[in-house]
Each structure stands twice: as C-alpha cells, then as structure tokens.
Backbone:
C-alpha cells in the first residue's frame, strides 16, 4: 500500500499523465464534441486534409451500403495492393492490408490468403459496425497501400510503421515511432505488441524503445538496433503536426503519419483520444510538456513559432 | 470555477442525504440494523376484474386465526367500495366488496399483518362438526370401500387411519383403487379433496384447508392445500407435502372447503395475485401502534407506503446504485477492464436470484457454449444483426437446456437461470469474439474474467442485508451515493493499474 503511494508520488513528480487526467483535463476540456466526427470518420478526415492541401493516402473507393459489397471484386480488380479499413475503426481493428495477389486470392500483410467471399464478409462486418466506436453502422474505405520508406525496413516485421505525434493546441509535444512486430501481427499498435520508440523532437532521431513493458535496444524479430535512426523529412512531419490543430479544431490530438517511399509523409489518421503509452516510449511524462506549452502559448503566433518552440524546448538532453 | 461548482453540488447532495438519514435515525428512531429475527409477515391480495358497468360485487375469503398464526391487523383498500365481512361456518371469513356503479378495470386490495401467536390455540371453539358422508356411486363406492377397509385394518385410531389414506393416495399405483378415485394426474388439491371424502367416508369429520406458505418477498404466492380431520375434540392438520412441516415454511390457513377463493358478480375476468413479505421492525411498530402522526405520514410517503409488490421491486432497485458506485470505483480508480459498461451490475442482479456459486457456474457455461457457437457462426459469414439474433436464440436454448438439466438433477437453483440478462449476455459473447480475433484470446479472457470478478464483487456488496436494509429504509442515502459518483467523475489521479503500467517511469 505504502509502495503504491510512493509510485504514485514519483509518477506525479515525473509529470506522467494517467487516463483520468487525460480525459478530465485535456480531451474533455480542449476537444469540442462537434469536432470529433472529423477525426472519428476517416472519410471526413481525408476530405479535410485534401482541402488543406495535406497529403493523405489516395482513396480508391468507399463502400457505404450492403448493396455495393457485391461489386467489391470488380472495384478491387484494378489494384494489385490496397488497404481495407473501417471509417470509424479504433485502435487499428478491422484493417486488412493486401500486399499482392495469388491468382484469384488476395495475399495479406500477415501472409494469409483471402478469397472474394472472405473479403466481402469482412466488408459487410465493417458496414454493420463490428469495429466502429459504439457499434454504429460504418463505411469501408479502400485506399492506397503505403510503400514505406526503406529507412524502417530493417526494424519492421511486415506491416507499416508510423510516426505518432501528440499535438496540444498546435504545439507538437511528443512523438514516437511505432514498429510492427511478429507479435503485433503487422499492426502498428502498442496494445497489440508493436514496438514504440521515443523521438527527439529537435532532430527526429529515435531514442530508446519499449516493447510491451520492457525497454529494448533491438527489434525482437529482425535483431537490428532501433535507437538512433533518423526519421526522414522530420521538418515536414513536425510542421504537418503543428498545422493539424487548425485542420480539426481539436486542442489535444494525436496525428499518425506514414512515410511513403515515393510520396513522402502522408497523414494516416488523427486521433481525438491518443493513448498514453507514448510516455513509456519516450521515458518522459506528458504533463510536464503540456504545462510548459500551455504557459508559453500566448507568445507563439505562427505555425513556425510553434515548431521552433517544440524543437527547442522538447529536445532530448540525453539520459 | 467548474470544480467549485461540483464540490458545492456534491456537498449539498451529501448534506441533504445524510441530514435526512440522521434525522430519521436519531429523531424518528428508524432502525439502523435489520432485525435478526423477524417474525412479522405482511400479506397482500390484489383482486382485479373488468366491471361491466352497473353494480358489481366481488367477494373473497380472508384468513382468520388458526393455530400458530394470528392476524394482528388487516385493511381493505378499495376506493368507493363498501365492505362487508361475514363468517361462513365451516369455511372461514368472507369479505365482500360492493359498489353501485363501476366500469373498466377495477382493483381492490386486502392487506394483513400476521404474527405468530404467543399461545397456541389448542382448544377448538367451533362446535363439534357434523359429519357429511360423501355420496360415492357404483364403482367409486366399491373402490372407496376397498381403500377405507384396508386402511381401517392397518390403523389403530383416527389419526393413523387418516394419514394412511393420505399416504396411499399420494403413492397410488397405476390401476389401483386409489388411482381410480383420483383420476388421471391428480394435483395436490385433488389428492386433498379425495382424501377428505375418504376420511369422511370412514366416519371421521374432515375438510380441505387452503392456505399459503409465508415466504420472504414472494410476489406471486400460490395456494397450497392440506387437510384437517376432527378427533379427540379438536381439528388436527395433515399435510400432503411433508416439507410443509419444516420451519421455514410457515403455513397460513386461509379458508376451508372447496369453494373458490374469489367470486365476482357484475364483472368478468377476475384475477388475483397474492404477495407476501417478511416485515421489518418499522412496519411492525407502525402497524401495531400508530401513535405518532408525523411518523405515520413519513411512513405513508416512503417506500413502506407502497403495495408489497412494488416494495419487493424497490428493495432490488435501491441496491443497484451501490453496485454501480462500486463499478465506477473499480473502473475509474482501480482500472479494471470489463465488457460493457454496466454488464457486471446486471450479472450481479442475476446472481441475487441464482446464488453466487451457481451464478458463476451458469455464467461460464452459457458464455463458453455461446462463444463456441459464435465461432462456428463466424464460418457461415452472417451479417451482424441476423448473427446477433441467432446468438440470442442459441443463448435462450442453452439456458432452457441448462434449466431442464439442472432441474432433472434435482438442483432447484437451476430454475432461476432464466433471469440472466439474455441480450446482455449475447452482446458480451459478440464483443468477446471480436476482441478474441483482434487482440487474441489472452485479452478476451482477461476482460471476460474482469467482468466476472467485478460482477461478483458487486453481488457481494449488493447482497449484504445491511445494505439492502439501509437503502430501503433510508433512500435519501442515494443522494450521498450520487454525490460520491459526481466527485469520482472529476477524479484525475492515476488508476491503480496505471501505477503498474507506468512503473518504468518511476525509477
């Protein structure tokens, strides 16, 4: 019991944020309810990003009603590889990444083969809301499959690695790279066993990595070191993040960016309730940074100001 | 600002709640603890019928003093009706509700407070009954003579003769004389009626007794039947069902003979419903000596003033907030993951009927089998709503099967599985499958177990007799529960599970 109090006090001292505080003092306070649909529905996010001239993975098609499911194979016929995902999915549930074809079958990122019926059933499930928040009916998106930048090739097991940046009132405060593992089934989700590495906000180099609850130096499947990797286009990434506040109006959000070999950084999705595991990956508390940002905010007028501020104040000073 | 507002609101709610509680406790002397032994029973009869328009008259039997039990108070609640009671010798007391003009659905009530008599009423005040030998004809007469003759040979006095006749009727072998007299598939009532005829035939005055078993919180009590015979100057009971003699089954004799319980003229569709409950000390005192006007009014406008059926319902309802508060604490302060927000509380409610061990066993079996079927359905590639519907049907089938199975195995608890929230179970199964497929069996089982543990804890708290008593007698305490819930709504500290999750950040 005493031990718990001690741990609690230590976490408090290190500025670690718990889920209750995130909800009570950040998402409830800074995220207006009417802005949620913009990020909860990925079709809306895409439209919004396109209008603002921000790059997103190209949308091949949207399946909105059951009737359209029948024509799914014809729609997919044009594409060798693509991603099927629910518009309102959460935590990476319900996403199928097709990397290629084997005669009439679709080969997915985790190596299994699906036929047309399997694909139709999966899309039907998405439409009926199996994966959506609160179980509402949903839409299925078919979009461009990202050919991720070779920089992460050595430290990724299948799937697509992405960069998550937490943005508070337009100030990028913390970032991490999420690397899929065999355990995570190719998904870039820390809950499911992906690796998270912290990122130095000043340089965009990866720091220590966390896998489940332990600190790791190498990728468990490929054996390559995960620290000290330079994220390409870091300048663009951090600027995209700083601009995302004006895009959605959400004061506290997470932005997920993928790096495409040919197209550069693409916004994958925005999240109104970003998870807290990023703190473990960075070995740092979010609350300290959020409080600094809140204090200094009146001085930061432009996007460039906010980026410069983040790079200066949230730089990594070594452990 | 917002915080202050919340604290003021919570403080006010808590103050009102606790204020009312302490006032009732110290000034009005409401009991803080439920009585350990409560021997006072409340019985309520609701009589409903469709009046045809014009004069209507409904009559029913009301219980009188019999042996161990005494009616300490009775009331007839029936707006606009005149009430007459008249004794029917040999049967009991009959009350008649009458009205000049009635239309539509009518409901009249009879309530009684019953206590064990201090002195058992041994000597019968009734005059020696007149024997009315039944008229058996032809084959029936031969059979009756056979049974009575055999019983007379094997018995020594009236008591042994009567019990032998009852025993034979109960065990009547197919094709025998007793079975012939009883007819096909005799009910307990039929057995009692035939036994009375045979005992009378043997020259001993006897009659059927209709009564109810007094049980705590019974909403739809059924009449049970036994018989009495007259020997050595008094009536003696003879039970058809031996278990009726055991102490928890206190039997209240209601009326005698085979006259129907209630009758109606000037109306139709007569229904009656009898509920019984064990009364708390409070009810006893107000029923027995209502001297303080204020207290009486308070009681009249509290949950105690409601009809018994609603009281039984509210006894359950008032403990739900306690379970919910516990759930809020477990989710937001401890950080336990469960399926569905309030599912564990609903499970806990079902456990109240089935008992904990059986409840957990049934829950695991239903969810386990349901999951198996759901995984099979996955291969059929059904759309969501029909799939959910199919799982609901399967869950109901599983529950029906388990009920029959456990009943045949002699487990009476099994009869209450039907009370499990079927739709909630189905949603649990569906959510569990999705989590199972997306996050793996470990996560699914962990959340399933979490739900079960939280449900069990809610049950343990909600089932404390003191909790039920406190919140039923002092419903204003719910305001205090509301205040605590509101405060937790702004709790922004760490959850206990987060201390573990973020432990690497606290070197």
Residues:
């Amino acid at each position: 019991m005493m031990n718990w109090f001690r741990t609690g006090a230590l976490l408090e001292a290190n500025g670690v944020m718990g889920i209750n505080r995130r909800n009570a003092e950040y998402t409830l306070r800074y995220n207006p309810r009417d802005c949620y649909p913009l990020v909860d529905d990925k079709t809306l996010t895409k439209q919004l990003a396109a209008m603002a001239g921000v790059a997103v993975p190209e949308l091949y098609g949207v399946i909105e009603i059951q009737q359209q499911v029948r024509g799914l194979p014809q729609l997919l016929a044009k594409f060798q590889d693509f991603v099927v995902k629910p518009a309102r999915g959460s935590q990476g549930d319900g996403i199928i990444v097709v990397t290629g074809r084997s005669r009439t079958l679709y080969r997915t990122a985790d190596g299994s083969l699906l036929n047309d019926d399997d694909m139709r059933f999966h899309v039907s499930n998405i439409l009926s809301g199996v994966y959506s928040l609160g179980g509402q009916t949903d839409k299925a998106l078919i979009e461009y499959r990202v050919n991720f930048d070779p920089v992460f090739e050595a430290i990724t097991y299948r799937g697509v690695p992405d960069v998550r940046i937490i943005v508070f009132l337009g100030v990028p405060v913390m970032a991490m790279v999420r690397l899929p593992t065999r355990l995570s089934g190719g998904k870039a989700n820390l809950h499911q066993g992906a690796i998270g590495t912290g990122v130095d906000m000043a340089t965009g180099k990866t720091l220590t990595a966390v896998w489940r609850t332990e600190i790791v130096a190498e990728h468990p499947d490929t054996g390559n070191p995960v620290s000290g990797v330079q994220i390409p286009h870091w300048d663009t990434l951090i600027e995209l993040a700083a601009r995302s506040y004006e895009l959605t109006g959400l004061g506290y959000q997470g932005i997920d960016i993928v790096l495409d070999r040919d197209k550069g950084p693409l916004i994958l999705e925005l999240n109104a309730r970003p998870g807290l595991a990023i703190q473990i990956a960075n070995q740092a508390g979010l609350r300290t940074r959020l409080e600094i940002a809140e204090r200094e905010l009146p001085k930061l007028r432009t996007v460039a100001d906010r980026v410069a501020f983040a790079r200066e104040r949230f730089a990594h000073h070594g452990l | 600002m917002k915080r202050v507002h919340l604290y003021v609101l919570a403080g006010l709610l808590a103050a009102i709640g606790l204020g009312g509680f302490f006032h009732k406790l110290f000034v009005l002397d409401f009991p803080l603890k439920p009585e350990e032994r409560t021997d006072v029973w409340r019985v309520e009869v609701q009589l409903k019928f469709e009046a045809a328009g014009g004069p209507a008259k409904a009559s029913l039997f009301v219980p009188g003093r019999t042996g161990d039990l005494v009616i300490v108070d009775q009331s007839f609640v029936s707006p606009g009706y005149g009430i007459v009671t008249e004794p029917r010798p040999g049967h009991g007391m009959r009350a008649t509700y009458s009205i000049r003009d009635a239309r539509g659905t009518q409901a009249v009530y009879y309530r009684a407070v019953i206590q064990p008599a201090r002195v058992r009423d041994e000597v019968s005040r009734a005059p020696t009954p007149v024997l009315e030998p039944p008229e058996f004809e032809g084959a029936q007469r031969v059979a009756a003579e056979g049974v009575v003759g055999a019983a007379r040979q094997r018995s020594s006095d009236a008591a042994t003769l009567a019990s032998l006749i009852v025993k034979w009727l109960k065990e009547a072998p197919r094709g025998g004389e007793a079975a012939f007299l009883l007819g096909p598939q005799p009910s307990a009532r039929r057995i009692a009626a035939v036994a009375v005829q045979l005992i009378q035939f043997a020259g001993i005055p006897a009659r059927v007794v209709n009564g109810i078993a007094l049980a705590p919180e019974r909403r739809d009590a059924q009449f049970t039947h036994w018989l009495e015979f007259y020997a050595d100057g008094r009536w003696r009971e003879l039970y058809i069902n031996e278990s009726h003699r055991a102490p928890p089954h206190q039997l209240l004799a209601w009326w005698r003979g085979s006259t129907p319980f209630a009758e109606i003229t000037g109306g139709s569709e007569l229904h009656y419903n009898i509920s019984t409950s064990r009364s708390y000390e409070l009810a006893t005192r107000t029923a027995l000596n209502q001297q303080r006007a204020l207290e009486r009014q308070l009681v009249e406008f509290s949950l105690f003033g409601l009809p018994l059926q609603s009281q039984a319902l509210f006894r359950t309802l008032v403990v739900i907030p306690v379970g919910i508060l516990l759930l809020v604490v477990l989710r937001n302060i401890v950080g336990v993951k469960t399926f569905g927000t309030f599912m564990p509380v609903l499970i806990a409610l079902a456990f109240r009927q089935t008992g904990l061990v059986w409840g957990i066993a049934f829950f695991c079996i239903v969810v386990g089998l349901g999951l198996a079927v759901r995984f099979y359905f996955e291969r059929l590639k059904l759309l969501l709503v029909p799939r959910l519907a199919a799982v609901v049907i399967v869950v109901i089938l599983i529950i029906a099967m388990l009920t029959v199975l456990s009943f045949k195995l002699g487990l009476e608890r099994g009869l209450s599985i039907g009370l499990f929230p079927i739709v909630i179970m189905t949603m649990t199964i569906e959510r569990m499958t999705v989590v199972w497929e997306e996050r793996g069996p470990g996560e699914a089982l962990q959340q399933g177990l979490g739900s079960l543990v939280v449900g069990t804890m809610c049950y343990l708290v909600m089932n404390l007799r003191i909790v039920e008593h406190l919140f039923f007698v002092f419903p204003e305490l719910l305001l205090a529960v509301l205040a605590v819930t509101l405060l937790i709504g702004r709790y922004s500290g760490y959850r206990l599970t987060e201390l573990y999750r973020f432990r690497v950040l606290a070197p």
